[in-house]
């Protein structure tokens, strides 16, 4: 029965062809030993890989020898490796189970590439599917986490997903298959073991037909997930407006959609945003523009475009400009500032009828108040200056907000420092302390020419 269902599952899911060679991940436990036996009896080409994680001392060594002997009995290639899993987990600050998973799958991928196997087969079965669903529920999940484990995904093949743990055990007894018992499977310190030992039996007691209904439920959830993905893709294409290298989501289109927090959460997940941030983004739509949200790779700004449209602007994070141009004397030629613009400086004695230029791209400063070295650098959070005409100080960030500058204009803004004091927020506002007064004898005029 199990052999017939095994072949039917492989053919229905088109997991591999008779001419393919499959790498089997064999621990020596009952599930993987039954999988290897089924491959052998099917006459399928296969190889065996075993990982010694070094977690159970002599028991691990015995497991490795047992699997090696099994591969020799089948006459198939055998691959063995050993890891210091505990040290690997400590170095990366992850759990032992996560470390073991990362180590084995990286090694499997290497073997597949080197020996041209069609993929790696693992012995996951229906009980694993249920435990995965329950485990995902405890952590919080969407539809994708409720349809368990895929039969084939990213080079990983799971040809026993049709079977239950009980049917696998029955087959092993019928074939009198020897296998190794992993002592850690009885340890309730692992979350999955607690689910296996204490939760799943209760569910089976509530519904003795659970293993018949589970595959149908999983298939419905998978189908629902496919339909949701199609709708998410359709609505994203309808709403998202590309603007250069950025994406704009207009408010009037967003607010017309049902279940907006869920949609935003799913749309923005590939860009590193969380579902909690999606809820905050929806709330920001009814508030003033300017709010920003960041993921490790992207940023979203509640923005108003030059066209007047408001919405969410999604952009990839770029490294913040970081430069310092120091001057120890007045430059005699135009000064290039990181390829964005040039600054010319002209120093002269102040004429009697001198009137400062009101063009914001021109700064007229008292040359004698400027202290070398002069520095041009990007503005930074916390920068303060005394805007022309004001008695008190103001944050540069507040000035840029008051001017309602776009994101790119804010990022391109830089400052001229006299010693440690800001003398000019370039192209925005000069500092009151460096203004030209009746007592000024020498004037320096700085003019910005933006490169096209």
TrEMBL record:
The UniProt record lists the keyword Cell cycle: no
CDD domains, per database record: TilS_N (cd01992)
Protein location: Cytoplasm
Reaction it catalyzes: cytidine(34) in tRNA(Ile2) + L-lysine + ATP = lysidine(34) in tRNA(Ile2) + AMP + diphosphate + H(+)
EC number: 6.3.4.19
Binding locations of ATP: 27-32
GO BP terms: tRNA modification
Keywords, alphabetical: ATP-binding, Cytoplasm, Ligase, Nucleotide-binding, tRNA processing
A Pfam entry, by short name: ATP_bind_3
Domain Lysidine-tRNA(Ile) synthetase C-terminal: 374-446
Statement: the UniProt record of this protein carries the keyword Aminoacyl-tRNA synthetase: no
Broad class of enzyme this protein falls into: ligase
GO molecular function: ATP binding; tRNA(Ile)-lysidine synthase activity
InterPro entries for this protein: Lysidine-tRNA-synth_C, Rossmann-like_a/b/a_fold, TilS/TtcA_N, tRNA_Ile_lys_synt, tRNA_Ile_lys_synt_N
GO cellular component: cytoplasm
HAMAP family recorded: tRNA_Ile_lys_synt
Domain topic, free-text comment: The N-terminal region contains the highly conserved SGGXDS motif, predicted to be a P-loop motif involved in ATP binding.
Function of the molecule: Ligates lysine onto the cytidine present at position 34 of the AUA codon-specific tRNA(Ile) that contains the anticodon CAU, in an ATP-dependent manner. Cytidine is converted to lysidine, thus changing the amino acid specificity of the tRNA from methionine to isoleucine.
NCBIfam families, per the entry: lysidine_TilS_C, lysidine_TilS_N
UniProt similarity note: Belongs to the tRNA(Ile)-lysidine synthase family.
Protein name: tRNA(Ile)-lysidine synthase
Species annotation: Spirosoma endophyticum
